[in-house]
Amino acid sequence: MTANSHDAVLIGLGFTGLMTLTHLVRLAQGRPLRVAVADPSPLTPGGVAYGTAAPEHILNVRTAQMGAFAGQPGHFLEWLQGADGQRAVQASGLAAPPL
Fold this sequence. Notes:
This protein is 31% helix and 8% strand. By secondary structure, it is α+β, with helices and mostly antiparallel strands. The chain has a two-stranded parallel ribbon. Helix 1 links the parallel strand 1 and strand 2 (35-38). Helix 2 (75-81) packs across helix 3 (83-92).
């Protein structure tokens, strides 16, 4: 990586890294964005917290109260109930979280 070759560098792709990337993409508003990612974990994306084999460990907040964006506390539930969320649940092999 050379100086000024990236707009941002993310260290880790756990929840915080993924949300930082999400916000960077939203703020870029379609402009080119160069992001380098450094994460040696084989569990990425999602980080260690999402590498558990016990499905009850994945969520620790009621689904309807989860949101990663200010002023949108129901954003996760809306996404989960949509087509992308349903595909993610099927791909995970886990049961959908309780609403």
